Amino acid sequence: MTPDELSKARNSDLRASLSALLRAAQSAREIAIQTRTAIVIMRNGRIVRVAADELAQQLNRGAS
Description:
Elements: H1 3-7, H2 12-35, E1 39-43, E2 46-50, H3 52-63
Helix pairs in contact: 2-3
């Protein structure tokens, strides 16, 4: 489903699911940085391991 389709869903849990997933992803990034562990994500259709250092750099770039 697209974000637009989700926003129009009848089920309130389904409408809230995208926000919940985004919060969970952000939380996973923060925990990975704190524990100095990598996360595994899908980027451009490929499975990619992202190191904690790279996550911290991305977070710092986004805060500027």
